[in-house]
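Progress against Task 2.4 (sequence-to-structure conversion) is shown through the following example record, which the project officer requested during the mid-term review.
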Amino acid sequence: MKVLIPLMTILAVAFADHEFRLWNNCPFTVWPGLLNNPNKPLPENGGFALEKYHTRAFHVPDGWAGRIWARTNCNGAGHCETGDCGNRIECRGAGGVPPVSLAEFTFDGSGNMDYYDVSLVDGYNLPISIFPIDGTYRRVSNSHYDCNTAGCKADINAHCPNELAIRNSAGWPVACKSACLAFNTDEYCCRGAHNRPETCRSRDWPVNYPAIFKQSCPDAYSYAYDDTSSTFTCHGNGGARTGYVVKFCP
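C-alpha cells generated for the chain above:
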C-alpha cells in the first residue's frame, strides 16, 4: 500500500533543511571529515571520499552546528596524511587531527541568521572557502561579512616556517601548525592571563606567527580572538533555508 505524502509536508521539510555542497576542486581525491556539535546530528556518518573535481550534496536540519574539513592522502586502511580522524573513512564523531583548515557553521543562531567561518586557529592543510548557494540567501547590509565568501585560497604550506611545518616522508610540507599547536604557550593559545581579546595581543607574542596566516588569508581566523575580521553571517531567502558550498582548493 502506497502512502502519499502531502506536497506541503515535503516543502516544509525542504525549507527546514540546509543544503551543503562539498566541491573538490583539487587535482586529487580528498576525504571530507564532518563533525557535529553536541546534541546535533552527525551527517554522512562523519566522512567519505570525494574524487577530484566532484561534488557531493547532503542536508542538515535547521539549527545544526558543526565543522567540515578535508583529509589528504588517505590509504586503504583509512589512515590519512593530514586531518586523520582515527584511521577510518567515516569519522563517526571523531574530529580531525590538527593542523587542518576548518569550515565552521552555526545555523539560525538568531532571527534566522547563520554564522560561518574558516578557521586556521589550529593550523592549515588545504585551501578552503565557504559561500552561500545562489537563491537561498538574502543580504541585509553592505558589509563584507554579509553572505560573502569566507576562506583561505592561499597555499600557506609553500611558505610555512620550518618550525611550524609538517612534512611527509619525501620532505614536502603538507600542513602548517599554528603557533598555539606548535608551542602550546598561554600567549599563543590565548589562555591564562591572555584569555581575553584585550590581553591576547600580538605585542605579547615572541614572534607574530598569526600574521603569516592573516596576511595570506585575511578572511580566515588566524588566532582565537580574530572574530571581527573572520566571522560571516547570512540570512535565509524568504521561507527557505540557506545552503552553502564548501570548496576545497578554490
